[in-house]
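Researcher: Please translate sequence to structure tokens.
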Amino acid sequence: MRAIPLLTLLLGGWFVVPAHADEAQDWLTRLGQAEQQQSFHGTFVYERNGSFSTHNIWHRVQDGKVRERLLQLDGSAQEVVRIDGHTQCVSGTLIAGLGDSPNSAARALDPQKLKNWYDLAVIGKSRVAGRAAVIVSLTPRDQHRYGFELHLDKETGLPLKSLLLNDKGQLLERFQFTQLDTAEVPSDADLQAGPDCKALALDTDKATALKTAESWHSDWLPPGFELSSSSSRKDPETKTQVSSLMYDDGLARFSVFLEPLNGATVTDTRTQLGPTVAVSRRLTTPQGEMMVTVVGEIPIGTAERIALSMRTNAATAKQ
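Model: Translation complete:
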């Protein structure tokens, strides 16, 4: 099912000439602009861990705002509505499995930054959903992130297909349009959330979130990853304050969740579903026992190293 031979992708970084790298940067710039400027609607399939799901998407850019609605078409009803990357409501299991932080806005791609951590190359052409596409590969320069193969629409720069690949070239995740319409702008009715789409209560404690960002750091992070946001919320079940720190390299990202145990008995865990890993480790701090959990689309060994590297800052330790 691959559009190009696996060997071509794996060796692409070895034979990239500067013109091809520059061309790849241009296409990634177009991709970033397209998602902020181009309205569309369509149907795509999503594959992870051997399971498939089909979704409708409506994406409208109007009056400087980007409004988006996704609706799963098979299985249990699942829906999400976002405005400028901020989640407005969710339904079904998306409430528990939503990948993005509810109050974290989308960030534009920066090809100049990405080329520090990935080898960028235009490696071919393809046809997806009846549309001509250019294939751009992003091959990681280290073992701490995954590779991407993007099939970008020649006409608009929108991603028609995206493959996430591990260091062995194995497919971890696939996103692929089966139908895309860029001519008709989605209407208000198209973007209206269904009755089961429940609004998210954004009860982030900003003062606690800021304190968390200032109180914690990692002794080690993969090169290129930087803190992009922090938040803090009270867990409805345990009633404890759970803080989170989000890091990204301009493309890949992961979150670190910090929760006081308050005497609770827990065990270390490590799980992986497709590209998404979750690693939890118990950590002893001057403030007591904490559970540190790293969740993201990064290799599990990298997540484990990050979890073990989390530390309270010296100023906090003295309090």
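Researcher: Any highlights?
Model: The two ends are 58 Å apart (CA to CA).
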